[in-house]
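Lab notes, practical 5.
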Amino acid sequence: MAGFSRATLYRLEAQGRFPSRIKIGAHATGYVLAEVEEWIEERIADRNADRRAQ
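Output from the prediction step:
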């Protein structure tokens, strides 16, 4: 959904700029869909605010 590489997602997560992963299996992690959707909505709101400010 976000279109980033795994390394970029991990870096953004470490910086507190993307939702945290959750463990879903012995060797698997995932993200909470609602948290990722909220993150995307925040990016859209930021973009729209930037457009209005111009």
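Observations recorded by the TA: Residues 7 and 13 are 10 Å apart (CA to CA). The chain has one domain: 6-53.
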